Known about the structure:
Elements: H1 2-7, H2 12-24, H3 28-41, H4 46-58, H5 62-75, H6 80-92, H7 96-105
Amino acid sequence: xNQALQIDPEHAQTLSHxxxxxxxxxxxxxxxxxxxxxxxxxxxxxxxxxxxxxxxxDREEFKNALKYFDAAxxxxxxxxxxxxxxxxxxxxxxxxxxxxxxxxxx
Length: 106
């Protein structure tokens, strides 16, 4: 992947994949940095949006998580994993009626 970045340092997908690697290594700040770079290039990068949301959810930064989940769901509204994660975040934000709507519509 580093070779791919040397060829095209503005390739959003490569940046997102590197971000996923850092997320899997639990280097979350570094992962977010790569996801952020990917999103500067391509605001509709589904991987960067969804993975950023999961990191913020795990950090209990629920408002940030919701922002990224909503953006990712705008791209892929049928993502069951994201809908479940968004529902959990809404519950943690005491927004139970919205969480219930997701549960009913899923």
